[in-house]
């Protein structure tokens, strides 16, 4: 979970006003045409308007009273407006979210450099950030706000990214390698860097995302297209039903008012899902944005719901950063205190995370040492493969991998004791890393380093398994270690001793078997795999190449974010599916409200079909259309929040949703229409 | 009363007992596995293929399969027209029956070509024995086999692989004839033969009655034809009044046999699917949905018919045998109602009772069976209709579990939904627009079209609605009482017949073909299973909502209005 969920209230007053205005703007038929269901409702509304006006002019009693026609017209108009409002509200919320991100990149004075000259030797020219073009260079020094997304080409700096990620701990970014990318709006805390602008103005990922949310460049996703076809098909069925009813009624000498025809039609076509469809799609993008994920397309979010396999890097995702010392195992002739002292002394000057963790573990056990005058520290070299310290009294402490220390010990004519050797093997078998400590050419004991598995990760993998997603750990460790960590963390499979191309090969092989694969990466060498994966999430700290290759960018640099993304994708599809079911199930009650109402005047026998005992023909029709209109705004919160996904297996999920939205969809309108009828029957 | 119900239960149980092994056998035939009948028919089939120059092992794409299907159908059409229009001089015409007029020949050829068997003639007086055999019986075999072969192509496409090679239409077609239709029909014909159904090439028998009047009795090679009429969901009878005729259906026993045959192959095809794909749970799910639908139509119909006509009851007339108007005393009201629902859900269309005389609700239930047209349905074609609803159900329920919908490991996308929706639309479109135009014509000028309806009003509306429903479902039964031998009815039902036969064959084969080509996605815990009760339920609900509720307003003006009126 991201550390700072940015919650906008569902009905923020400012957004409501904006959405209401947009609801009217969207009445434009050219815009409405994108949504066939609501477009036909709009056409029906126009026809009703004409009928209403005609009733005043020629006072045609056969079409019902002016007021009655006017009410039907108004209700239909509101049906369209409610649908537009839902879409506009979703857009407004997405826009608000995007704007809060965009605000971080307001006009910033930029120290622009001439790319022809040597970067650090020239006096920068101060320009507004909006004038920066792709390929320009600028310099940022301590305290500067980085004006634009770019790649560091010189220098190293600590950067405060809290404006984007909400994470207050500063991060280090440096030229070259996989941590060279900087984001506009973040702040340089120390040092200075030269940055090359990587995007044209207005074309950053954030800009693209804002455009997607605003609807300007929003394209329908494949599932959305298929669903639109389905809904258009249903609409056509009901056009046939309504149109053919006219000659049927003529045959039966049953006059039916135009208001009744249009009401029947509008009630039967799936307006509920038709009105909320685009709002659901936008809300899905918006939810991704709230999780601090920038999706490059709506399709990417949707695809995430279909993922079968998740490739996860071990370090940082499954385990916490680096290995840590977990145990001291002294040899036969050494007391524990003595050994810990030795180990701590030998690690005092070791700046690696492993070294630091040895000192920390020693402190936890009550033994802390500080540097003494006369100590000579021996750094790790590729040749000795060990590090350590020469004490003022001439003692030599060394620590390193078993074979390195074995060599040192062997050179002195000694042997590593069987007890230490067994311990080394035991630690390796458990997936840990043994560090042997020697003093003056004698092996004294073993320090055990272990990967620390993130708390709660096992439950998350379990959840994924229930969703049908297989997790695969990618690690540079040997297969033995990988196996051990895999079994402890509950990951389903692993790729050990992974080289960059292994990810790519794995993805290809799984895709060939019909699986959908998601992965997260940051480095340039991840780029091909990110591009190959069906869903590639790039960390914001990653290189530009990696960001271009993936189809989502995670602003939090949180490797477990993929899990959230999968759920957002599933939620998106589920919301569409359940509301479609609800909408179609509603038809049962609407049929039973309107069909008797159409014929009751001329065929009183059909009163038997009026199982809801609605008051009159007019009240039944009005109740049905009012219910049909009101249900749209009532479902807006559900459409925007999304239906909650539960990893309980597909069949159980189907049963659950069928019960709530299918059966509920049948029952709710019976109750709703009856209640509305009780009120309406006071006048009709 | 109780014994009548017992008869119904026995028929249902016998259908089950026969359909399960027969389904397994059909699957074996289509899989090309060894069966007992290999020895009998292998050489015969080889003969066909050698002389026709067709390579039975050449795998065809879905387009090629459909092309073969349509081509062979056109050939039959012209063959049928030719024989009907020249039967006067062709052999086997002991009663000197004249050649058919072109329009009646056209109508008859189309009607039998599409496996509908709407009959605008009376077999006794209008067809020679040669026409009965070479046109009617021949088409009853090959059109049933056409539907089965199309279903076999879809079965083939549903297997776990990615391919565009979907078997050979001609092989499926020929084997459907030789291995399935022929043996089952042969056994059935023998049973009918021994129960009194005639099988002779001698012409009309003239005799003198006890009163001294001279009379003539039509007969002919009936037993053979009646068997395939029921087995292949054809329904077109040898004699005019179909299975109400004492020669076509002499006893309660033959009635049971024929009724079981009506249901046998449509039910077997469902079990064949399970064996063919080795997904028996899937076929039980489909069977469950279809049976539920069948029972929901059957039980109220039984209740209505066995309780008699409420209008008569209101007059104080006791009806111990139920509503017997238009029914045969040897069958009784329960067996007649069971036949009515069996023949309408399966697109068979043979009748042993006059549907026009059913109580209004039973008449509506019979119509609903045809409007839905996928609770078992015609041999092959019924499953294909159901397949369309599976695709729609897969799509909606797939979304409901948060995954791009997939059916048996294939993603269902916009193109398939488009085809499925068009096919689902066609049926209500044809029925409702046909009835609408007819109603309009009648309403505008009742005097000119007075000959159409013996019973104007709600019942007349039901008659028109029934006629188009029967044509669109390729059923062939009639709500008699409609004067349907006019140019309007001949032409309009003819158009409906052709569209409603070929489009629903093409659509599912196309969808299956497109899906077959897609990449196969192995199942995971997140995959929606299509062989569960929940999935069955959603399929059922979609069928009811799309296929049944679209007709609700029309039914309200016809049978429902009549029903509430006579209460």
Automatic annotation (TrEMBL), chain A:
<feature type="region of interest" description="Disordered">
    <location>
        <begin position="97"/>
        <end position="117"/>
    </location>
</feature>
<feature type="binding site">
    <location>
        <position position="350"/>
    </location>
    <ligand>
        <name>ATP</name>
    </ligand>
</feature>
<dbReference type="InterPro" id="IPR018303">
    <property type="entry name" value="ATPase_P-typ_P_site"/>
</dbReference>
<feature type="domain" description="P-type ATPase A">
    <location>
        <begin position="125"/>
        <end position="214"/>
    </location>
</feature>
<dbReference type="InterPro" id="IPR023298">
    <property type="entry name" value="ATPase_P-typ_TM_dom_sf"/>
</dbReference>
<keyword id="KW-1003">Cell membrane</keyword>
<comment type="similarity">
    <text>Belongs to the cation transport ATPase (P-type) (TC 3.A.3) family. Type IA subfamily.</text>
</comment>
<feature type="transmembrane region" description="Helical">
    <location>
        <begin position="225"/>
        <end position="246"/>
    </location>
</feature>
<keyword id="KW-0406">Ion transport</keyword>
<keyword id="KW-0460">Magnesium</keyword>
<feature type="transmembrane region" description="Helical">
    <location>
        <begin position="619"/>
        <end position="638"/>
    </location>
</feature>
<feature type="compositionally biased region" description="Basic and acidic residues">
    <location>
        <begin position="103"/>
        <end position="117"/>
    </location>
</feature>
<keyword id="KW-0472">Membrane</keyword>
<feature type="binding site">
    <location>
        <position position="354"/>
    </location>
    <ligand>
        <name>ATP</name>
    </ligand>
</feature>
<feature type="transmembrane region" description="Helical">
    <location>
        <begin position="258"/>
        <end position="280"/>
    </location>
</feature>
<protein>
    <recommendedName>
        <fullName>Potassium-transporting ATPase ATP-binding subunit</fullName>
        <ecNumber>7.2.2.6</ecNumber>
    </recommendedName>
</protein>
<feature type="binding site">
    <location>
        <position position="522"/>
    </location>
    <ligand>
        <name>Mg(2+)</name>
    </ligand>
</feature>
<dbReference type="InterPro" id="IPR008250">
    <property type="entry name" value="ATPase_P-typ_transduc_dom_A_sf"/>
</dbReference>
<dbReference type="Pfam" id="PF00702">
    <property type="entry name" value="Hydrolase"/>
</dbReference>
<dbReference type="InterPro" id="IPR059000">
    <property type="entry name" value="ATPase_P-type_domA"/>
</dbReference>
<feature type="transmembrane region" description="Helical">
    <location>
        <begin position="65"/>
        <end position="86"/>
    </location>
</feature>
<feature type="transmembrane region" description="Helical">
    <location>
        <begin position="588"/>
        <end position="607"/>
    </location>
</feature>
TrEMBL record, chain B:
<feature type="transmembrane region" description="Helical">
    <location>
        <begin position="382"/>
        <end position="401"/>
    </location>
</feature>
<feature type="transmembrane region" description="Helical">
    <location>
        <begin position="129"/>
        <end position="155"/>
    </location>
</feature>
<dbReference type="InterPro" id="IPR004623">
    <property type="entry name" value="KdpA"/>
</dbReference>
<keyword id="KW-0633">Potassium transport</keyword>
<keyword id="KW-1003">Cell membrane</keyword>
<feature type="transmembrane region" description="Helical">
    <location>
        <begin position="176"/>
        <end position="194"/>
    </location>
</feature>
<comment type="subunit">
    <text>The system is composed of three essential subunits: KdpA, KdpB and KdpC.</text>
</comment>
<dbReference type="Pfam" id="PF03814">
    <property type="entry name" value="KdpA"/>
</dbReference>
<keyword id="KW-0630">Potassium</keyword>
<keyword id="KW-0812">Transmembrane</keyword>
<keyword id="KW-0406">Ion transport</keyword>
<feature type="transmembrane region" description="Helical">
    <location>
        <begin position="68"/>
        <end position="90"/>
    </location>
</feature>
<feature type="transmembrane region" description="Helical">
    <location>
        <begin position="6"/>
        <end position="27"/>
    </location>
</feature>
<keyword id="KW-1133">Transmembrane helix</keyword>
<feature type="transmembrane region" description="Helical">
    <location>
        <begin position="284"/>
        <end position="303"/>
    </location>
</feature>
<keyword id="KW-0472">Membrane</keyword>
<feature type="transmembrane region" description="Helical">
    <location>
        <begin position="260"/>
        <end position="277"/>
    </location>
</feature>
<keyword id="KW-0813">Transport</keyword>
<comment type="similarity">
    <text>Belongs to the KdpA family.</text>
</comment>
<feature type="transmembrane region" description="Helical">
    <location>
        <begin position="535"/>
        <end position="557"/>
    </location>
</feature>
<protein>
    <recommendedName>
        <fullName>Potassium-transporting ATPase potassium-binding subunit</fullName>
    </recommendedName>
</protein>
<feature type="transmembrane region" description="Helical">
    <location>
        <begin position="488"/>
        <end position="515"/>
    </location>
</feature>
